[in-house]
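Exercise: predict the fold of this chain.
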Amino acid sequence: MKVGVFVDGFNLYYRGLKRTKFKWLDLQKLSCELLSEDDSIEFIRYFTAAVSPRAGDAGAPERQDTYLRALRTIPNLTIHNGRFLPKTKKRPLVEDPETYVEIHDTEEKGSDVNLASHLLNDAFRNRFEAALIVSQDTDLCEPLRMVKHDLKKTVGIAWLDSSNPGKRHKKVSDFIRHANSSILGRSQFSNPVIGKGGMKILKPEGW
């Protein structure tokens, strides 16, 4: 089947990659691992937002930029940007709920809406026969239901953590594939990745 791949970058990172050694992930290789040999990957859409330096992690923007440069070497991949908003919030202390403290917080905006919009648009335009969704976000269940039941496309979900898929995800998909550590390990970029003009893109330290 002709497959369109839709990747929620933050959901992938926080659900499947954050505490692993597999962050240097080649999304083309991952998609091939999760699909059948007969499938043809027509395109990959990667949805993310530019991170800002946070306390104790000033190198996050540079690491992200390096990873995005590596992703851009995949010929059929496009990057779609939302927004990453730093803010402050007041929250109660666990041991003293009457006492509130002000904390730094960050909120990613737009990736799930952008993913759902492109998923539905591509389905309406018959740009794929099957969609592979790399996300466990339950907010996507309704657009997945529409693509599967109303537009009669095959829908697959890449499951990213060790939990069992819930009823809602099973109901709106035709198949669920677990992106386990073996698959993630086989789906890594080379180091370095060779970019345009032979430029070497080195994996960030600690990845």
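Check your answer against the key: The first helix runs from residue 9 to 17.
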